[in-house]
Amino acid sequence: MKKLALALCCSLLSLPAVSGKEAHEAAVSAMFADSGALGMVVVTVQGGQIEVHGRGETRPGSGQLPDGQSLVRIGSGSQVFTAEVLARLLQDGRVKLDDTLQHYAGAGRKVPRVAGARAITLRDLALHVSGLPRGVSSGPPKYAAPFAWPGPDVRWAELQGGKTEAAPGTQAEYSNIGYDLLGDALASAGGAPYTDLLARLVTTPLQMNDTTATPTPEQCARLMSGPGLDNSGPCGATSATAASSGLFSTPLDMGVWLRQLASVVPPQASTCLVLKPWVTRAAMPAMKGFDIPGPADALGIGWVRLADGQQGTSPIWHKTGSGAGFMSYTAVLPQQRSAVFIVVSTVDLKMLARLTRAGNGLLRQLGQEVRDTLGSQFDQQPCP
Question: For domain 20-378, is the CATH number 3.40.710.10?
Fold first, then answer.
C-alpha cells in the first residue's frame, strides 16, 4: 500500500502555487448563494493539489460546516466507478467489450433481442446505447430505502419482460438499469460481488475508505441532510444499485479520485480508455439524457464529453448525479490537470443546470491557471 501511494504521489504533476484562490472562493460562494441548498461542498484539483470548500451546514440547525469528511450520496456519479472497474477487468483480460450480456446472465436468465437486431453487449451497456429504458417500469415498494432498490431479481425480471426502447447501437439514451446490469455482468466475470471488485480494484488501493455502498454507523453519522424530515433518506446498504447510483462518498475521497484521473502523468491506461469519445452525437440519430451541463458531443465509458471545447484546451468530461436529497457534479479537464466535484444537499434539476454551468466556469479557470503555470509543457497530450 505504501509503495502504491508513493508511486501515485511521485507520478503527480507538481505545480507551483497558483494565484486564483480568492477567485475560487468567490465562485464557490456565488454557486452556494444560487443553489438554495442548506449545505454544499466544492472540491478543486489542480495538478495534484486538492482544495475543499464547504458552505452552509451539514444538517438543519447543526451549525457544522460541511467539509472533506462529510458523507454524501453521489447518485449516478457512481457510474464513473463502474467504468473504472470495467476498464480494469478489460486490462486483465477478464472481459471484452463485445462480450454479450447473455454470456454473463447466469442460468435461467434470457436477454431479449429486438427483432432482427444483434445481442446487447457490455459495450452497449457502458455507452448507454443498449436500447434499454432509464429504469424499471414499476415503482419501489413503500419500505424501500433510497437506492436500495431495485435488486438483481427485479431488474432481470424487467429485462426478460422485453422492455427495450431500441435496437442496440442505434441511439444513445441514458439508462440506470443498463449500468446495474453491467455491474451484474462484471460481478460474474470477476467472480465476486460488484462492490467487492470496486473495493479491491479501485477504492482500497487509493485509500478511499468512505466510498462505499455499505456505510457504517460512524459514516452514516456524517451524512449531510437538507431541510425536512431527513431528506437524504435512511442511511444503509445500497449494494443493489451500486453500479448505477447507489454509492456514498466524501468530498475528500472524490478529490483523491479526481486527482488520479487528472494529475497522474502519464495517465493510467484505464483513464485513457474511459475518457475517450466512443460514441459521438454526429453518429447517433438521438442522444437523450446527457445535456444538463450543456450540449454533449460524445460519450466515453461512464463519462460525457461537453461540446464546449475551446481552441487550445481540452474538452470537459463530466457526470451528474441526483436523488435522495443530493445533487452532484463531477468534471475533469484532463489536459489541464484540473477537476471539480460539487455536491449540494437539495434536489432541484433547474438549479443543477445552473450549478453545472457555473462549475464548468470554475473548472475552465482552474485549467487556465495550470496552463499559465506550465507554459510550453501544457501542449503535451495526456493520452495517445
Answer: yes
Give the H/E segment covering residue 338.
Answer: strand 338-344
Residue closest to 251 by CA, chosen among 99, 32, 68: 68
**Please, where are the H alpha helices in 165-275?**
176-190, 194-198, 217-220, 251-262, 269-274
0.90 exceeded by pTM: yes
Helix axes 152-160, 176-190, angle to 10 degrees: 110
- The span from the CA of 230 to the CA of 60, in Å, is 9
- Segments making up each domain of the chain, as ranges: 20-378
Q: What is d(CA 182, CA 178) in angstroms, rounded to the nearest whole number?
A: 6
Beta bridge partners of 223: 71
Q: 274-307, pLDDT tens digit by residue? A: 999 999 999 998 899 999 999 999 999 999 999 8
Instruction: At 162, list the grid cell.
Output: 422485453
The set of cell numbers assigned to 283 is: 453518429
Supply the DSSP string of 151-188, one letter for each residue: -HHHHHHHHHTT--SS-TTS-EE--HHHHHHHHHHHHH
Can you tell me the distance from the alpha carbon of 27 to that of 35, in angstroms, rounded to the nearest whole number?
A: 12
